[in-house]
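Could you join me in thinking about how sequence relates to backbone shape in a protein? Label the sequence line and the structure token line clearly, so we can match residues to local backbone shapes. Once you have written the record down, we can walk along the chain together.
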Amino acid sequence: MSRSSTCVYFLQHSSFQILCGNRDVVLVWIYVFVVIKRKEVCVCAYWRLGRSCMRSAEYCISVAPVQLTMLFLVILTTFLCSTYADISCYNDDGQPVDWFIIYKLPKLKENPDHDGETYMYQDASTQAWVESTHTMNDTDGAVGHTLQQFYKSGGPKNEGVAYVLYNDQFEEKMSYPSKFGHTKGVILLDQEQGIWLVHSTPKFPPKLQEGYYWPHNGLRNGQSFLCVTYSYSSFKAIGNQLMYTEPDCYESSLPPSFADDFPELVSASQGKFVKKPPWTSQVTLTSVGGKAFTSFAKNGHFEDDLYSGWLSGALESNLLVQFWPNSAGVLPSNCSIEYFVYSIEYLQFSQAISFSHHIDHSKWCISKSANDSGKPWTCIGDMNRVEGEMKRGGGTVCTSDAAIWKAFYKLIEKYEDCS
């Protein structure tokens, strides 16, 4: 560069949306340039709010040549990081994480500190259960913070975000339609990556216009959550899995670019499911952090128990299963098959935190031994072991991780042996 030259670097053209009270979303466009002269660096920003006139600002400083490159990198990194963040699972500290698992504790009469909103948390950094200082109703907690990305997205007006919310027990109904699967979850993604949150809670999460809160019906019983951050391309396979599980979708937005890339997700959100065998689908998904998760999805035409009819054989492991045992037609432990399936009856985090499966609505299972098939499996999903769900869609997401398996295995105080 000659001594008299001036270089102009176009840093970023970014758009985002802000909420103005209860009014409509306002689109904000930002253009940033860095002008580098002989001894001076100027950062020039131009922005427009909605349809208002273009505004501008300029800030210049004198720098020595040796500082120029470093200053440019700092400005570039700071700007890019502060103006855009990919959709991700978030931990209890408000930091993006590859995945997390939450065990919402039941309301414990003998322990008033656990009023139905407290939870245990784990991710790759904890290596075990950690009692959260947040509650399920907090928007600063892991689930609340993660879902705030949905509530602050601007909804269908934002064509850079797609989402599908599904829950077979969302609406107030005397009985829930068996034409849909017994499945609950949230899919939320931008054009880089997104999350799949698999959970067990009825009437959750609330619709976009209601904002985030923990429902009163979610206080009494235990609940489970698995959040995983996946790359954009992974949602094609995830959409395909939903075509097997037959979700009851109660809110969705799939703008044209997402709909073109993920027709399976569109079909599932519109109640269009698989119509011919095979009636099961197994797929390995890799998180953005490189961790393998295996999704098992069954259609109602499979007409068998997810765990004894498929999962134990597929994982080549005897299974210990936690599910809601208060429905009609509960299936007993099954030792008549190659890999046995046992029903968990009592759980304990500590002497102060223990409870029966009768107040635990979570859905998960683990291999009975860490040595089964050489892999310590843990699966978190949305299906019970009851006759009625043999003819309904649903599934679970499994991973082989010694720390996760150990955390769940330590909880089991009692299970039903085969009679």
